[in-house]
């Protein structure tokens, strides 16, 4: 069965209504036609006419009759067809590749982590191709690559972790794999994954905050990810959060990078205990009540709560998705984090709803796969 155009040929573009239908079923399916008409603002006749070519081409299917509790005929929900192909997602860091293969809804079916011994662009593209081939024997429909930095139309404008400037990286990976490649900033990709398939699905707006090797910030407003040429600048990394915190590498006292990155937390506990302590051990020591670790983790928890409340206050969004490889902090300090959020909010404001994606590095790779899926939807051919 022909599915997406794996060659990336310029197709007859979908209309806005066709694209909205494809996205709605992909994100919310299986979904009743009545729910689709309400969501898309269409009449039943218009929906039937709009859905017919998708059904004829095998992109969408009608499921078996399902009684929805209302009076009348059972409904036949629409859903994406099974077997629409696999997608690859790759998160590139300065020293590793996090690689995932997913289904059409960005659910991982295989994943791996590979060390990255070189930053030479062609070599990195080759390692990405090799890692994906090792996970998936079938042809991929599309691949997404996400990294920390500024990207534009397949070009890495700059990526500090990789020391790249103006690298046409999507084209390099496409030559290796022979399928369309979508290149995106890692925070934008993660926000898209949470919006389409993750904890933010169905929410009109929310903030995305990530902690780990760095501190990241993304925003969804009106059902769309806010995109900016400054997405790769790490602007969330130096927000002041503590007057008495440590210094970051740029000399800022108590900024989000100094208070919340795994490296800073590890360094603070190591200095207090006079021995090397990893981030994971620092969390475990704090959970066990070790005084020095508790002091550092408590300060980090207060800072994270303050960061969340600032983000909510300044964006008027009362939902936050927390993610990143360092989000284990939330599991051991949830009560303190929530107290700090509350302290930073007006008592008349809505409580901030927290959603925690604890999948670690896999969340970043899944974000890359999600933008590949979005691109594939835009390449659908109905002619």
TrEMBL record:
InterPro entries xref list: ATPase_NBD (IPR043129), ROK (IPR000600), WH-like_DNA-bd_sf (IPR036388), WH_DNA-bd_sf (IPR036390)
Superkingdom of the source? Bacteria
State the similarity comment. Answer: Belongs to the ROK (NagC/XylR) family.
- Coiled-coil features, chain-numbered ranges: none
Secretion signal span = none
The name this protein carries in UniProt is ROK family transcriptional regulator
């Amino acid at each position: 069965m022909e599915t997406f155009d794996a060659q990336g040929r310029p197709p007859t573009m979908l209309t806005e209504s066709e694209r909205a239908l494809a996205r709605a079923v992909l994100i919310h399916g299986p979904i009743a036609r009545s729910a689709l008409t309400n969501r898309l603002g269409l009449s039943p006749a218009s929906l039937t006419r709009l859905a017919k070519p998708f059904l004829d081409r095998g992109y969408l299917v009608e499921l078996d009759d399902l009684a929805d509790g209302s009076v009348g005929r059972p409904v036949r929900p629409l859903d994406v067809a099974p077997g629409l192909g696999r997608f690859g997602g790759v998160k590139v860091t300065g020293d590793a590749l996090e690689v995932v293969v997913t289904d059409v809804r960005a659910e991982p079916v295989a994943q791996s982590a590979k060390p990255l011994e070189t930053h030479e662009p062609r070599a990195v593209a080759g390692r990405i191709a090799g890692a994906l081939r090792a996970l998936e024997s079938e042809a991929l429909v599309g691949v997404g690559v996400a990294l920390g930095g500024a990207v534009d139309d397949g070009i890495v404008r700059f990526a500090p972790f990789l020391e790249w400037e103006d690298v046409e990286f999507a084209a390099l990976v496409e030559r290796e794999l022979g399928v369309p490649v979508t290149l995106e900033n890692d925070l934008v990709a993660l926000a898209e994954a949470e919006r389409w398939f993750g904890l933010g699905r169905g929410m009109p707006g929310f903030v995305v905050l990530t902690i780990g090797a760095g501190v990241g910030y993304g925003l969804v407003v009106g059902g769309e990810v806010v995109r900016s040429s400054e997405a790769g600048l790490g602007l969330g990394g130096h927000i002041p959060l503590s007057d008495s915190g440590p210094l970051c590498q740029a000399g800022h006292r108590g900024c989000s990078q100094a208070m919340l990155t795994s490296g800073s937390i590890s360094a603070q506990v190591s200095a207090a205990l006079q021995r090397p302590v990893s981030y994971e051990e620092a969390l475990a020591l704090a959970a066990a009540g070790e005084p020095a670790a508790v002091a550092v983790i408590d300060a980090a928890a207060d800072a994270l709560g303050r960061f969340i409340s600032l983000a909510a206050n300044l964006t008027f969004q009362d939902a936050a998705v927390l993610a990143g490889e360092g989000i284990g902090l939330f599991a051991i300090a949830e009560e303190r984090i929530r107290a700090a959020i509350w302290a930073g909010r007006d008592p008349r404001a809505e409580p901030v709803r927290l959603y925690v994606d604890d999948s670690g590095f896999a969340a970043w790779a899944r974000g890359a796969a999600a933008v590949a899926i979005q691109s594939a939807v835009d390449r659908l051919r109905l002619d």
